[in-house]
Amino acid sequence: MPPPGLPDDLQEFKAGGSGEWFPAAEIRYYTNVFLVQDDKLLLGYKKRGLGIHKYNGFGGKVEPKESTMDAALRELQEEAGITAPLIHAGTLLFVVPGEKWAHIDIFRAEEYTGTITESDEMRPEWFDTNNIPFDNMWEEDRYWLPLLLSKQHFSGRADFEREGEKYSPKKWWIGIDSTT
Ligand SMILES: COc1nc(N)nc2c1ncn2[C@H]1C[C@H](O)[C@@H](COP(=O)(O)OP(=O)(O)OP(=O)(O)O)O1
């Protein structure tokens, strides 16, 4: 059974952790874009802000009056210097008690135009898809990134405990959209 905040018609893929889901809170919207070409995945090493020193896709906050797609394209241009046709790959909710829920629309791209360029925020780097640096990424990425790579549309939720800048996963649930 999917946790609160996710659609009902999902097939469980991975779940773990323990305890109760944290209560509902206001939502803040983010985007995240992953470029996949053949057996290579483009990630960015985050140089500042949330997730500093971790590898992640390229993305950030959706600005007021901006569509999610427009926000994803803007962040990809700002952070990696490229533009790309984006495919919606999935949606994730990240929950930390006392903070707004992070609703992240995740996109996949398979081609791009422009020159991949380091920015103030991200240092782009290609990885083999069989050698993704999960130990230096957000912990729950290892559960859903295989679905992005296999083109299965997903939704998930992960609740974290926070101590200072350390986020520890408490409970997570990832499902595959039954229509894919
Ligand atoms: C907690 O789990 C998370 N996992 C993953 N994989 N990605 C996450 C998680 N929490 C946040 N993110 C993503 C969402 C965004 O792509 C970035 C954070 O965006 P940021 O705060 O840097 O937003 P910007 O608008 O770029 O920030 P500035 O205001 O500094 O430009 O991380």
UniProtKB/TrEMBL annotation:
Function of the molecule: Oxidized purine nucleoside triphosphate hydrolase which is a prominent sanitizer of the oxidized nucleotide pool. Catalyzes the hydrolysis of 2-oxo-dATP (2-hydroxy-dATP) into 2-oxo-dAMP. Also has a significant hydrolase activity toward 2-oxo-ATP, 8-oxo-dGTP and 8-oxo-dATP. Through the hydrolysis of oxidized purine nucleoside triphosphates, prevents their incorporation into DNA and the subsequent transversions A:T to C:G and G:C to T:A. Also catalyzes the hydrolysis of methylated purine nucleoside triphosphate preventing their integration into DNA.
Keyword Magnesium: yes
GO biological-process terms attached to the record: DNA protection
Record EC number: 3.6.1.56
Domain Nudix hydrolase: 20-150
Family statement: Belongs to the Nudix hydrolase family.
Name of the protein this chain belongs to: Oxidized purine nucleoside triphosphate hydrolase
Keyword tags: Hydrolase, Magnesium, Metal-binding, Nucleus
